[in-house]
Amino acid sequence: MLPKEIIKKIQRIRIRTNRIVSDVFSGEYQSVFKGRGMEFDEVREYQPGDEVRDIDWNVTARYGRPFIKKYVEERELTVMLLVDASASSRFGTRQEFKSELAAELCAVLAFSAIRNKDKVGLIIFTDRIEKFVPPAKGSRHVLRVIRELLYFKPEGEGTDIELALGYLNRVTHRRTVTFLVSDFKTAGYDKALKIANKRHDIISVMISDPREMELPPVGLIRLRDAESGEEILVDSRDERTRHLYRERGREVEDEILRIFRSTDVDCIRVSTDRPYVQALMRFFHRRERRMH
Q1: DSSP assignment, residue 213?
Q2: How far apart are CA 6 and CA 42, in angstroms?
Q3: What fold characterizes domain 4-31+75-291?
Q4: Is the pLDDT of residue 277 over 70?
Q5: Where are the domains of the chain?
Q6: Which residues, other chains included, contact 85 with Cβ-Cβ below 8 Å and sequence gap of 6+?
């Protein structure tokens, strides 16, 4: 039996994300992910009313009468949500933890997918594979995905993106659209990301919190690495300390973005202090412009 607060969260997310999908993403998902897989099927003779742009001029010239190319639309898509549930995801200094933001954003993507009759699957990972929900269709299935994201208690603390991408390749037998949701506070996944992106359409969703970039000047603070457990005591009133903290945060962020550029992986950047809808819209519009 789920706790009442989790049930309320699921209901709240369902209502909110359904409204966002209806009002904001009604055509965005389909225009970006659908229609890209129009595959050539055969040629046949031109008939009145056929699209002139589909004429195959080589075959037409060979036979002396017009032929057109016939296409079949790509089959249903499989959308995979590859979600980092390591200890650093259970952090947040604004209205919600990074893990809660990840759950709501994944709900938007999942409801967008099933509205377009696509399948949705889920892989939750830390430094191990924590949970696999095979791809399926329907609202009940999406609610199960949301429930797992909100209620599942991972055993691991660390982050192993390379392991997660390897598992994705093993459990999927065809190309997927995969949203890799993480704060990417780890290293050594460059090669795995590049390989996976050749087989799948990988889109990174980079989740952050403003406190990861800026220390408030409130005095002595004990900083603890959520994944390693390492602690350090710092004086946040010291300007040099805050400057070094800020610079280190920027270095980490720049390195993450460099990896995405070098592996040709799209990035959606979201933060616990900003609405995520605008970030998703920018991604969809950027994808649409590139396609056309």
Answers
A1: T
A2: 52
A3: Rossmann fold (3.40.50)
A4: yes
A5: 4-31+75-291, 39-72
A6: 99, 124, 125, 126, 130, 152, 154, 156
Residue 148 CA to residue 122 CA, distance in Å, equals 9
For the record, the structure tokens of 121 come out as 């699957």
Task: Compute CA distances 46 → 51, 63, 99, 109, whole Å.
Answer: 9, 12, 55, 40
Residues 6+ apart with CB under 8 A from 55: 46, 66, 67, 68, 69
Two structure tokens written together for 262: 């070098």
Length of the chain, please? Answer: 292
- Site of tokens 């742009």: 53
Interval 193-216 mean pLDDT:
92
Output the pLDDT for position 205.
98
Strand ranges for 52-105 from DSSP E:
67-72, 78-84
The residues, any chain, with a CB within 8 Å of residue 243's CB and separated by 6 or more, are none
pLDDT at 76: 77
- Which candidate, 38, 87, 83, 51, places its Cα nearest to that of 206? 83
- Full-model pTM: 0.82
Residue 149: name the closest of 83, 91, 202 by CA.
83
- The DSSP result for 143-196, as a single string, is HHHHHHHHH---S--S--HHHHHHHHHHH--S--EEEEEE-----S-HHHHHHH
Unique residue bearing structure tokens 């990861």: 212
Query: Tell me: the pLDDT tens digits for 78-127?
Result: 999 999 999 989 887 777 899 999 999 999 999 999 988 899 999 999 99
